[in-house]
Each structure stands twice: as structure tokens, then as C-alpha cells.
Amino acid sequence: MKQQRLVQRQHPLFSPIALLMTAVLIVLLALLLWQTGGRLFTPGDLSSMARSPQQSGGFANHAAFGDDCTQCHDPFVGVTAVRCETCHVNISQQRESGAGLHGSLTIANCAACHAEHQGHDFDLYAAAFDQFSTEHHAALFPLHGQHAPLECDDCHQNDQYAGTPATCVGCHAEPDLHKGLLGTDCARCHTPEGWRPALLTDHTFPLDHGDELPAGGQIPCATCHTAAFTTYTCDNCHDPAEMIEEHREENISPTELTNCIECHPTGEED
Ligand code: HEC
Ligand code: HEC
Ligand code: HEC
Ligand code: HEC
Ligand code: HEC
Ligand code: HEC
Ligand code: HEC
Ligand code: HEC
Ligand code: HEC
Questions:
Q1: CB within 6 Å of ligand 5 — which residues?
Q2: Which domain holds residue 97?
């Protein structure tokens, strides 16, 4: 019977050969990393688009420095505005001065609107608008009422965004109804919910004036504004002859009766 030789076998992981293999693997990996500049771990190619021949940071596009991850990524932090703005100086200028689109935004995280690693064909500019509706509402110009269903190019023709007028009169002409009469601060009286009825929350003369209206009733506009909204008459209810008579009793001559609201701004006696 052959005697079994008892060998004190080494654990295979620590065999000299295994150790050598591990070392070689590490060196290979390091070489590969150095060669590819970390591209191994990228989730996808960077965009090679450029709308203008103008270069930013000395490069033609993002793909041109795609290997240099730290241009955009802060180690252990991620994409930061500071890194992007090293090249996109105009954006940091906007944000510092509070001007332009990026000076108005409520979100500072560039990556919230500017995705990357979507391939070479990825259009950085067009994609910027994908997340935009809520931000338009919060930071630029709320799109409510009859503005809500509009297409972008109803207000921004030919993809022209900067310099869009933000006041009503910039886009809506005064109507013949009150052209040249009520001023151009339209928002005082109108909202995008509709032109009619006009708001007139600051109409000083009470519209429920007098004691002959049903509860909650209002005197129709045309009773006082027979010709335009800048002129009024009280004659349709207060007979002029009677008024002359009654005011004469107060020692007020008929010639003084031209502007009733001078003395009755709220329609009260005193
Ligand atoms: C032009 C700028 C830019 C460069 C250069 C760049 N990235 Fe990114 N990367 C981005 C943006 C933008 C995102 C999206 C971040 C987000 O969604 O929050 C991103 C996301 C990632 C993500 C997903 C995880 C995360 O942080 O959100 C990884 C992983 C990543 N990048 C790796 C790399 C690697 C590796 C490189 C270099 C080979 C690289 N990136 C180069 C801009 C860049
Ligand atoms: C190393 C310089 C550099 C860095 C860093 C950089 N970019 Fe760019 N970016 C460019 C270049 C170059 C272009 C292509 C030329 C151009 O359109 O200005 C470009 C294009 C863009 C465009 C399209 C511009 C257009 O007018 O169509 C957007 C959007 C953009 N970058 C956003 C970012 C964001 C967000 C970051 C940070 C995650 C970033 N960039 C980081 C250089 C850079
Ligand atoms: C809320 C979404 C949003 C955020 C956040 C945002 N952008 Fe933009 N960005 C846009 C839109 C929309 C456009 C295209 C419209 C325009 O240029 O007026 C744009 C255009 C750009 C452009 C190309 C136009 C130009 O003026 O050069 C660059 C570069 C850019 N952004 C970089 C940045 C950087 C850097 C950050 C972070 C500091 C950032 N963006 C944050 C929405 C955003
Ligand atoms: C009812 C009109 C209207 C519609 C519809 C509209 N916008 Fe605007 N938008 C404006 C106004 C007004 C401003 C200017 C706000 C300011 O400067 O205060 C503006 C500003 C912008 C800006 C910033 C321009 C800059 O550089 O300062 C961008 C980008 C923009 N809009 C994109 C869009 C997109 C994308 C859509 C469609 C989803 C859209 N808008 C729909 C009226 C509109
Ligand atoms: C950037 C341009 C722009 C601005 C600023 C703007 N609007 Fe508009 N608005 C439009 C467009 C475009 C329409 C679609 C109908 C049209 O072509 O007139 C519209 C439609 C309307 C409508 C629906 C009735 C109609 O005329 O078809 C009302 C009401 C309205 N706007 C009120 C306002 C008020 C009030 C303001 C100021 C607080 C304002 N708008 C500011 C562009 C604008
Ligand atoms: C001081 C208040 C006031 C101001 C300011 C004002 N409006 Fe009016 N607007 C009115 C009143 C009142 C009406 C009639 C509403 C009704 O009869 O219900 C009216 C009606 C309209 C109508 C409907 C006209 C029609 O024929 O159907 C439009 C359109 C209109 N306004 C646009 C504007 C624009 C644009 C501006 C700014 C340039 C403006 N308004 C400024 C008070 C105002
Ligand atoms: C729709 C009809 C109507 C119109 C229009 C009208 N009023 Fe009157 N007014 C009345 C009635 C009704 C009374 C209460 C009875 C009375 O004292 O003659 C009254 C009362 C008054 C009084 C007395 C209030 C009091 O405290 O006793 C004054 C002052 C007055 N109106 C001023 C005006 C002026 C100024 C205008 C025009 C801007 C005007 N009214 C337009 C119907 C009207
Ligand atoms: C009882 C009479 C009376 C009625 C009814 C009346 N108004 Fe007036 N309105 C006036 C008087 C008086 C003024 C001048 C007030 C002032 O300058 O303080 C005036 C001023 C105005 C102005 C000019 C405001 C400004 O400050 O530029 C507008 C617009 C107007 N009215 C619209 C209306 C509309 C719309 C209606 C119907 C909803 C209406 N008014 C109903 C008496 C009336
Ligand atoms: C110079 C100031 C003045 C002017 C202008 C004026 N009023 Fe008077 N009004 C008075 C005074 C004062 C009284 C009496 C108040 C009292 O008895 O306490 C009065 C009283 C009234 C009364 C109540 C009369 C009654 O006793 O029943 C009415 C209605 C009236 N005014 C309407 C008008 C109308 C309409 C106009 C424009 C055509 C007008 N007023 C212009 C000063 C004025």
C-alpha cells in the first residue's frame, strides 16, 4: 500500500503564479485607463455638435475633449456649474449679472436641462428645451390662460428667444375700442384669461352706486361711459336741470358742475 504523501498545499489565491497574474492585470488595466483616459466608465459618447464655428475653451465641441472627464466632472461631486462655465464664460456672466435666460433661472444645476453622453449626434441646443415648460413658468413668463395652449413659435418666431417682449403691448396692439385712451399698461386691466371682462379692480367710482340696484348688481358701463372710457356722464340718472337746481341751493353755480367726481369721488354726498 502506497503511503499517501501529505502535502501542505498553499491556498491557490496566494500562489506565486496567481499573484503574478494579478499584478499583470492591474498594470494592464492601468495602461488601458491611461490610454483611454477613463472612457471605459463613461455612460456614452459626448456630443460633437457645434452651432457656431466659435470655439469655447479652445475646443470645437464636447467630443473633442470627451476623454478629459474632469473638464465637466468634479471628482466625487459630479457635474458642476463652475466646470461648465470655465469654457462657457458668457453663461457665468449672465448668472452673475442676473441678465438673460441663465440669469433668470431658478435652477443652478446645469445637468437638469443639459444632458450629455447621448452620442455624437446629440443636439445639445435642441435638447435644452425638453425640461423647459415648468421653468418658463417659474422664471421667465408664466404661460397661463389663453397663453397656455400656444406653441413656442407663436411667441418666438424663428427660434429667436432673447429679446422677446414681456409686456402685453409688446405683442398685442391697442384695440380701436380704447386706442390712445387708457394707456399701455394693459396688465392693469387685463389678464391672459381673456380681454373681456376687463379687470378694473381699481375702478374708483363704485359700480354698485345708488339705492335702486338689486343686491350685487352693477350699473352697466355704457350708462356712464357713453362715448369712451375716458369720459363719463352722470346725466342718465341725475337729471341735469335738477342737479343745477339742487346745487344752487348749496351755492354751487352751474359752471362749477362740469366734473362731478371732483366733489363726489365715491358717489357720496360729502
Ligand atoms: C462636456 C462635459 C462632460 C464630460 C467631458 C464628461 N461628462 Fe460625464 N456627464 C456629463 C453630464 C452633463 C452628465 C449628466 C449628469 C446628470 O444627469 O446629473 C454626465 C453624467 C455622467 C455619468 C452618470 C453619473 C452621473 O454623474 O450623473 C457618468 C458615470 C459619467 N458622466 C462619466 C463620465 C466619464 C467617465 C467621462 C470621461 C471619459 C465623462 N463623464 C466626461 C458631462 C460630461
Ligand atoms: C472645455 C470646454 C467646455 C466645457 C468644460 C463645457 N463645454 Fe459646452 N461646449 C463647448 C464647446 C467647444 C461647444 C461647441 C461650440 C459651441 O457651440 O459653443 C459647446 C457646446 C455646448 C452647448 C451647445 C451650445 C450651442 O450654442 O448650441 C451647450 C448647451 C453646452 N455646451 C453646455 C455645457 C454644459 C452644461 C457643460 C458642463 C456640464 C459644458 N457645456 C462644459 C465647450 C465646453
Ligand atoms: C432650466 C433649464 C436650464 C438650466 C438649468 C441651464 N440651462 Fe443652459 N440653456 C437652456 C436653454 C433652454 C437654452 C437654449 C435657449 C437660449 O440659449 O436662450 C440654453 C442654452 C445654453 C447654452 C448655449 C447658448 C449660449 O448662450 O451659449 C449654453 C452654453 C448653456 N445653456 C450652458 C448652461 C450652463 C453652463 C448651465 C449651468 C450653469 C445651464 N446652461 C443651465 C436651459 C437651461
Ligand atoms: C405667450 C407667449 C410665449 C410662449 C407661448 C412661449 N414663450 Fe418663451 N418667453 C416669452 C416671453 C414674454 C419671454 C421673455 C421673458 C422676459 O424676458 O422677462 C420668454 C422667454 C423665453 C426664453 C428665454 C430667452 C432669453 O434668452 O432671455 C426661452 C429660452 C423661451 N422663452 C423658450 C420658450 C419655449 C421653449 C416655449 C415653448 C415651450 C416658449 N418659450 C413659449 C413668451 C412666450
Ligand atoms: C411674447 C408675446 C406675448 C406677450 C408678451 C403677451 N401675449 Fe397674449 N398672446 C400672444 C399670442 C401669440 C397669442 C395668440 C393669439 C394671437 O396671435 O394674438 C396671445 C393671446 C392672448 C389672449 C387671447 C385672445 C387673443 O387675443 O387671441 C389674451 C386675452 C392675451 N393674449 C392677453 C395678454 C395679456 C393681458 C398680456 C400681458 C399680461 C399678454 N397677452 C402678453 C402673445 C403674447
Ligand atoms: C384702464 C383699463 C384698461 C387698460 C389699461 C387697457 N384696457 Fe383694454 N379694455 C378695457 C375695458 C374696460 C375694455 C372693455 C371690456 C368690456 O367691455 O368688458 C377693454 C377691452 C379690450 C379689448 C377687447 C376689444 C374688443 O373690441 O373686443 C382688447 C383686445 C383690449 N382691451 C386690449 C388692451 C390692450 C392691448 C391694452 C394695452 C395696450 C389694454 N387693453 C389696456 C380696459 C383697459
Ligand atoms: C344708474 C343710475 C345712476 C348713475 C349713472 C349715477 N347715479 Fe348717483 N345716484 C343714483 C341713485 C339711485 C342715487 C340715490 C338716490 C338719490 O340720492 O338721488 C344716487 C345718489 C347719488 C348721490 C348722493 C348720495 C347720497 O349719499 O345721498 C351722489 C353725490 C351721486 N349719486 C353722484 C353721482 C355721480 C357723481 C355720478 C356719475 C359719476 C352718478 N351719481 C351716477 C343713481 C345713479
Ligand atoms: C356710475 C358711473 C360709472 C359706471 C357705471 C362705470 N364707470 Fe368707469 N368711470 C367712471 C368715472 C366717474 C371714472 C373716472 C374715475 C376717476 O378718474 O377716478 C371712470 C373711469 C373709468 C376708466 C378709466 C380708468 C383710468 O383710471 O384710466 C375706465 C377704463 C372705466 N371707467 C371703465 C369702466 C367699465 C369697463 C365699466 C363697466 C364695468 C365702468 N367703467 C362703469 C364712472 C363709471
Ligand atoms: C363743487 C362741488 C360739487 C360738484 C362739482 C358737484 N356737486 Fe353734487 N353736491 C355737492 C354738495 C356740497 C352737495 C350737498 C351735500 C350735502 O347736502 O351734504 C351735493 C349734493 C349732490 C347730490 C345729492 C342731492 C340731494 O340732496 O339729493 C347729488 C345726487 C349730486 N350732488 C350729484 C352731483 C352730480 C351728478 C354732479 C355733476 C353733474 C355734481 N353733484 C357736482 C357738491 C358738488
A1: 146-147, 150, 154-155, 164-166, 168, 170-172, 186-187, 190-192, 194-195
A2: 63-135
